[in-house]
Amino acid sequence: MKFPTIAQLCYDNQVYLQDGLIPVAPGSHFLMGGVIADDKGRTTIPNLYAVGEVACTGVHGANRLASNSLLEGITFGQRMAQFIIQHGCHQKNFTHDHHQCAEIMPSLFSKQQLQQYMMQFLGIVRNVNDLQHFIQQLPSLQSLLYTNLKGLEQAELELFMMHVVATLMAHAAITRTETRGAHIRTDKLEMDAHWASRWIIFSQGQMKVRNSLYEYHQTRGNAQAIF
User: Fold this and answer.
1) DSSP per residue over 68-125, as a string?
2) DSSP letters of 174-197?
3) Is the separation of the CB atoms in 226 and 190 below 8 Å?
4) 127 pLDDT above the threshold of 90
C-alpha cells in the first residue's frame, strides 16, 4: 500500500524513505467517549441519532485505535440508515424549551489559543496541576449552560461549542484519577480497579459517575449478533 501524501511530506523535509526508518511521534486525533447510542444510532433523545466519531456504542473500550472509526461509519451508519428508512421519522407536537438562557457570553479563547491549550494541558499525557490550571481558565459548566446563544454567527457558535467540549473533557479528565486507555495521568500511572466499568456522564450541566450506562443497552453485548 502506498501513501503518496506522507511520502511527499517526507521528501519535502529531506527525510528519504529508502534510507530506512523515519522519525515518528505520538499524536491524538480521536475523542474517546461521546453520545450514548445503540447499534441503530438511537440516543436517549427521541429522533436524535448519533453515528461515527461522536457516538459511544461500547464496542471500542477505553482506547480507540486507528481506523476503528470505519466500524462506526460503515457498519453503524448503514444500520442507522436502514432503521430510519424502515420506521420513518415523524415529529409532532413540538414543545418549546422555556429554559432561561439570560447569561452573557463568557470570555472565550480564540480557536488557535484553545487548540494550543488543549494539546498542552489536555493531550494524551496529563497531570492534576495542568488540569486544574486549565479548568480555572475555562468557562464554568453553569455559565455555558445558561449562555444566551441567540444571534450568534456560525463561527461564534462553533467556538462556543468547542469550549463546551473542552470544559467537559477537562472535568472528566481530572475526575478520573487513574491511567486507562489513552488517558494517561502522570500523577496516577496505574489503572485503579475502583474505576473499572465506571462512566463519567454529563447531563443537564451536572457531572455524575455511574457504574453502568442504564439509559441504553450498549452495543457491545450484541456485537456477535451484529456481525
Assistant:
1) HHHIIIIIIHHHHHHHHHHH-----S---------BPPPP---HHHHHHHHHHHSSSE
2) HH--S-BTTBEETTB-S--GGGTT
3) no
4) yes
Q: Measured between alpha carbons, how far is 101 from 150 in angstroms, rounded to an integer?
A: 9
Q: What is the DSSP letter of 64?
A: P
Highest mean pLDDT among 41-45, 149-153, 190-194: 190-194
Q: How far is CA 98 from CA 39, 76, 95, 202, in A?
A: 32, 34, 9, 21
Beta bridge partners of 35: 55
Residue 96 CB neighbour total at 10 angstroms: 5
Q: For residue 35, report the phi and psi dihedrals to the nearest 5 degrees.
A: -80, 125
**H-helix or E-strand containing 164?**
helix 154-175
Q: Give residue-wise pLDDT tens across range 159-189.
A: 999 999 999 999 999 999 999 888 899 999 9
The Cα–Cα gap between 199 and 184 comes to: 16
User: What pLDDT score does 224 carry?
Assistant: 52
Classify 203 as helix, strand or coil. Answer: strand
Scan for cell 461521546, then name that residue: 34
Amino acid at 118: M
